[in-house]
Specification:
513 residues, alpha/beta, Rossmann fold, three-stranded antiparallel β-sheet, 14 strands
């Protein structure tokens, strides 16, 4: 799709069953869409009233469905702040209509509906009840992308399955008036195995238990998008950690109430409703969900002109489409590089099956000779724009460490050992440890080598400035002819060099299933 075909920001709607599902399965994609200038909306069906509470600090919420619902609303708000998502809604305006159904484990190792459920349980409601509310949101925001669970619900949770059914029914009920691309969250079998691998470096430090067997269903449909979210994995981890009643995060691993450890997903996978298999989508797997977003014509091309731009303003083309414009129909045709994909409600992939609304449509492939030199180049997937807050936060941390380290680094203690006087430079050790902790914090949080280097440079330059006679508090804080001061001046740069090559958070991962 050419840049001229996009009249405003890409709009994406994520539909999930409970608070925390969005951060675990799609948090990285949401953050990258926000960074790319997209308008992201999260729609959560329940408030997670039936979740098992972890952590001694929150045990008073166990069994208190109303109290836990209110608490998890706050957790979700904090998670969305970490991801930068401003538009997050619940399916029902008040608690109690679509409640967390709960679940129990079946003999096959997957989740199933519990024997005892509240009257307002989500999975008890007919699919059309939540579908009508989802349809209203789709009609309001006219998304180019709708993303939800596959038919199996990931690991079989009955609420996940019901949300899948409701989303498919909601789009079918639009009867082709709005035809967004419908994507399902999937995980290839090899990715499931790798996530639960207890031999991964660092797992032994988490305190989590190894899983005897993964509970997730492996992907049944071909992977259409493999979105590398390693560049925002720190923000994804922060969003997950915000759900403290449900998730424990330790480094690059997490566990739910069962304490079974798994790696935080650095690649998020999606199947396309129009390509349930066995043949994959032409050109797949794409590197970003933006690459398969529906064209403006499929969702109402004049929507942006009717005042739907976000406060960020209109963005350039963010979705250089695949060969032919891809839609979400239950049936689609793709004949070679110039083929076109149908646009409709989507047929569900997976073991439980699903229904699409069957409308089809096509957009001719762009003329290769069409001049696009003036089009703004899309930002590569996995390389988010650093926010002003990230830069400000880094500068504040570096200045604080420079001041504290300079004040501390000359402290030492003389001890006698075998008749010899030894000087223990504990002040320098503490100062360098503080600098290392600050640089590790910035690196893991923002996944940026540039900010790591900036932190080290500011610490060294700030320390040098504090040692100048013309500045307060004066040159006596930094005596440059001592080894301790030399170590403090150059130590942060050496630490930064080590971290830049050693930290997994700063290494790129291939976006392949």
């Amino acid at each position: 799709m050419s840049a001229a075909a996009r009249s405003g920001p890409v709009r994406a709607l994520f539909v999930h069953a409970h608070p925390d599902d969005e951060s675990i399965t799609t948090g990285g994609t949401m953050a990258q869409l926000v960074d790319a200038g997209a308008q992201v909306t999260l729609l959560t069906a329940s408030r997670g009233e039936g979740g098992e509470v972890i952590g001694a600090a929150h045990q008073h919420l166990e069994g208190d469905r109303a109290g836990l619902a209110a608490h998890r609303e706050g957790e979700l708000a904090r998670a969305m702040a970490a991801l930068g998502v401003a538009d997050h809604r619940f399916l029902a305006p008040v608690a109690g209509r679509f409640e967390d159904s709960g679940m129990e484990w079946g003999p096959d190792g997957h989740a199933r509906a519990p024997r005892h459920m509240p009257p307002g349980a989500l999975c008890r409601a007919p699919a059309e009840a939540p579908a009508a509310l989802i349809r209203a949101v789709v009609e309001e925001i006219r998304p180019h992308l709708v993303i939800t669970y596959a038919a199996d619900g990931g690991y079989g949770h009955p609420d996940h399955r019901r949300v899948h059914e409701a989303v498919v029914a909601a789009l079918a009920g639009l009867r082709g008036r709005i035809e967004p691309t419908l994507l399902f969250v999937e995980t290839p079998a090899e990715a499931v195995a790798a996530a639960f691998d207890p031999t991964r470096p660092g797992f032994e430090l988490t305190g989590f238990d190894p899983a005897p067997a993964p509970a997730n269903f492996p992907a049944q449909a071909p992977i259409a998008v493999a979105q590398d979210v390693s560049a925002v994995l720190g923000r994804k981890a922060m969003a997950m950690a915000a759900h403290a009643t449900q998730i424990t995060v330790a480094g690059e691993f997490f566990a739910l109430s069962n304490n079974l450890g798994q790696a935080i997903g650095a690649v998020e996978y999606f199947s396309h409703a129009a390509y349930p298999g066995p043949e994959p989508m032409p050109g797949a797997p794409y590197a970003s969900v933006l690459d398969v977003a529906a064209p403006d014509a499929a969702v109402g091309g004049d929507f942006a002109e009717r005042g739907a731009e976000t406060e960020r303003g209109a963005a350039p083309d963010l979705a250089a489409g695949p060969r032919g414009a891809a839609g979400t129909g239950a049936s689609a045709a793709a004949e070679g590089p110039a083929g076109a994909a149908g646009a409709g409600g989507g047929a569900a992939a997976g073991s439980a099956g699903g229904a699409g609304h069957g409308a089809t449509g096509a957009e001719p492939a762009a003329d290769p000779a069409e001049p696009e030199a003036s089009a703004a180049a899309p930002r590569p997937a996995g390389r988010p724009r650093l926010s002003p807050w990230a830069v400000i936060h880094t500068l504040l941390v570096a200045v604080l460490v420079a001041f504290l380290g300079t004040m501390q680094h000359l402290n030492a203690t003389a001890v006698s050992l075998g008749g010899q006087q030894l000087v223990l430079p504990w002040g320098l050790v503490l100062a360098l440890a503080l600098a290392a902790a600050a640089m590790w914090h910035v690196s893991v949080l923002y996944r940026s080598t540039m900010l790591l280097v900036v932190t080290a440079v500011i610490i060294s330059l700030g320390s040098f400035a504090l040692g100048q006679p013309g500045l307060l508090p004066g040159h006596d804080l930094l005596v440059v002819n001592t080894l301790r001061s030399v170590g403090w001046l150059f130590g942060p740069m050496l630490i930064a060099a080590v971290l830049a090559f050693a930290l997994p958070s700063l290494k790129r991962r291939p976006a392949r299933p």
